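Work Package 4 report. The design task specified in the project plan requires that, given a folded chain encoded as structure tokens, an amino acid be chosen for each position. We show below one input record used in the internal validation round.
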């Protein structure tokens, strides 16, 4: 039996669509994919229209009309349970708007909808770095401009009652410190304020007076630069505190790291050692893996939603 599904990944800079073709028990394959720039400067209506147009074009390129293909959508933020309005999106013109309902109206069909971190976690579980752990619990981590995450339980996204399961970026890892860093969420000491790319870069700038991007800071730390070493140590300490907390509470089978910061090798070396030292156990068996699907994970995960994700 053959099944087609269409995934839509709505990001701040790009909208991407992909059609997956599934046959029997074989892994799904990408039938067709397209992407366009997100017209965020043109506002909400333009984003809805561009997303719908790309979905229709991608479906037709795969030989179907969009009404004949199940559709899943992933995007930063989520949808409020009480009224269906978008919340917590970094494309701010979407917040407080009924994006899901408006896209359904534009496409003339129902869609499945989830957070982009959940889509990342689902794709890496089914098709990527956490293959083999589908019957367990996989924690998919985003370490980039922000810090987020998603949980997949026995091969399916676990959104939680409020749709915020896996949002580890906003639990406190330094909240008791008198100089805890403020977070945009209104709290202080959140993991995101220490383990995101901008947090690392701001820390290094404060210490050294010199701007640098995360990969350069990591390189300088390996070369013995004092300020870079201190900035990396702060990030790794926060990462270890946060991930040890998650492992203590959830005890996942595997953790997959994604986002730009996940490319820093120190997370898998010193970072893992620090996690092991903090976790409530005398050994760390949890696999901590780098993503395999890159920026394709979001759209693939969205396309997997209609396939029982």
């Amino acid at each position: 039996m053959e099944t087609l599904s269409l995934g839509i990944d709505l990001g701040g800079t790009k909208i991407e669509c992909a059609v997956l073709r599934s046959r029997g028990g074989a892994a799904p394959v990408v039938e067709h994919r397209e992407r366009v720039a997100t017209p965020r400067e043109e506002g909400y209506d333009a984003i809805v229209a561009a997303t719908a147009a790309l979905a229709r074009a991608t479906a037709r390129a795969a030989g179907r009309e969009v009404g004949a293909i199940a559709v899943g959508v992933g995007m930063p933020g989520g949808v409020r349970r009480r009224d269906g309005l978008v919340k917590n999106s970094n494309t701010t013109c979407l917040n407080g708007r009924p994006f899901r309902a408006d896209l359904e109206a534009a496409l003339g069909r129902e869609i499945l909808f989830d957070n982009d971190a959940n889509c990342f976690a689902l794709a890496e579980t089914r098709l990527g770095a956490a293959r083999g752990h589908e019957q367990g619990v996989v924690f998919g981590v985003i370490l980039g401009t922000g810090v987020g995450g998603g949980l997949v339980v026995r091969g399916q996204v676990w959104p939680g009652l409020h749709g915020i399961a896996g949002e580890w970026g906003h639990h406190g890892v330094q909240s008791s410190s008198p100089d805890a860093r403020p977070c945009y969420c209104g709290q202080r000491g959140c993991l995101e304020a220490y383990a995101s790319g901008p947090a690392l870069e701001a820390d290094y700038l404060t210490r050294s007076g010199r701007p640098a991007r995360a990969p350069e800071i990591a390189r300088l730390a390996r070369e013995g630069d004092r300020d870079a070493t201190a900035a990396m140590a702060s990030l790794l300490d926060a990462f270890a505190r946060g991930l040890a907390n998650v492992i203590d509470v959830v005890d996942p089978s595997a953790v997959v790291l994604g986002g730009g910061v996940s490319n820093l090798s120190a997370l898998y070396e010193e970072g893992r050692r620090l996690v092991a030292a903090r976790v409530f156990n005398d050994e760390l068996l949890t696999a901590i893996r780098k993503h395999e699907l890159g920026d394709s994970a979001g759209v693939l995960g969205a396309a997997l939603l209609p396939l029982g994700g």
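The two ends are 18 Å apart (CA to CA). Validation will be extended to a larger panel in the next phase.
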